[in-house]
């Protein structure tokens, strides 16, 4: 297992798994001192490992930092952050999981077991937003109703990824790691899919996230590149952690799925993908997905996600 934390072009890219543990109006945080000597606070957690889903990674990080086994964890949301540190752009995806404090867990401060630079301490929830580096995302995750996922995008100083930024798609830790965006485009009882000669399955329009690019922007870009039609309103309906492939070609894919009603100008008959003539866009009735498999198969459960909600799926093929 290798941490998903590495440079992608000029951007430092990482995926984190964080634990939001709340007790009696307090959030358990790590605290330390930065290079200028200023104190800062942040949620417990660390880098996602290749081949590991986000909730499992959060449980591992909790045990490594506190020495206690994790209690039941529930994914609360995903944060996307693009910021500048030491003159370099950083792109960080964070999966936040909620957990109640275990019975008997310390009420006072204690040292982080796997990093003596930091201390664990309970921070009053009323102090959120007043502490340096404690992500504004945390409040959204804590306020998310049970069973829903919060999704927060933060971009510092309006920095935008320049054209030609490398894709978040690379070999890492003995497998291929990627972050993909896909569009669930619906027209009546049909969904737009891609197909190619020789492939026994269809797949949804989309492609790789660019380093420094948020997933909604990437979804709109991929749609325009493939169809030549401006996208309509997009809403996130699913985040799929997908593990698949034979043992010698394992893949770990984080998929962000955006639903969109089909624009009126989109053809009703099959057409070639604009940026790849070997791929065809065509409509498949939802009722025929069992006979015409659309990968990943978990996408079938994203067709009826109510407005304002987002599903989290872990799929191990």
From TrEMBL:
Keywords: Hydrolase. The keyword Nucleus does not apply. Residues 174-310 form the Nudix hydrolase domain. It comes from Deinococcus rufus. It comes from the Bacteria. Its cofactor is Mg(2+). Gene3D superfamilies: Nucleoside Triphosphate Pyrophosphohydrolase. SUPFAM superfamilies: Nudix (SSF55811). InterPro entries: NUDIX_hydrolase-like_dom_sf (IPR015797), NUDIX_hydrolase_dom (IPR000086). This is NUDIX domain-containing protein.
């Amino acid at each position: 297992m290798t941490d998903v934390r590495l440079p992608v072009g000029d951007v430092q890219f990482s995926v984190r798994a964080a634990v939001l543990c709340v007790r009696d109006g307090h959030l358990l945080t790590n605290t330390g001192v930065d290079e200028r000597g200023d104190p800062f606070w942040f949620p417990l957690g660390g880098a996602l490992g290749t081949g590991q889903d986000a909730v499992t990674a959060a449980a591992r990080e909790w045990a490594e930092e506190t020495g206690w086994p994790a209690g039941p964890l529930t994914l609360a949301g995903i944060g996307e952050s693009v910021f500048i540190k030491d003159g370099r752009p950083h792109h960080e995806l964070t999966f936040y999981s909620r957990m109640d404090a275990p019975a008997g867990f310390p009420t006072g401060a204690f040292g982080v077991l796997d990093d003596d630079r930091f201390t664990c301490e309970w921070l009053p929830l009323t102090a959120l937003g007043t502490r340096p580096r404690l992500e504004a995302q945390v409040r959204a995750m804590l306020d998310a109703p049970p069973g829903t996922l919060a999704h927060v995008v933060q971009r510092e100083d309006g920095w935008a990824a320049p054209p030609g930024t490398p894709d978040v798609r690379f070999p890492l830790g003995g497998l291929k790691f990627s972050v993909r965006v896909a569009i669930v485009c619906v027209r009546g009882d049909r969904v737009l899919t891609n197909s190619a000669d020789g492939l026994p399955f269809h797949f949804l329009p989309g492609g790789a996230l660019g380093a420094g690019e948020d997933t909604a922007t990437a979804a709109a870009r991929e749609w325009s590149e493939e169809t030549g039609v401006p996208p309509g309103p997009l809403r996130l309906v699913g985040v799929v952690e997908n593990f698949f492939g034979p043992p010698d070609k394992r893949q770990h894919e984080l998929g962000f799925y955006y639903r969109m009603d089909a624009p009126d100008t989109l053809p009703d008959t099959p057409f070639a993908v604009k940026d790849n003539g070997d791929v065809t866009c065509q409509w498949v009735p939802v009722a025929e997905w069992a006979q015409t498999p659309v990968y990943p198969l978990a996408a079938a459960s994203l067709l009826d996600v109510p407005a304002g909600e987002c599903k989290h799926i872990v799929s191990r093929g």
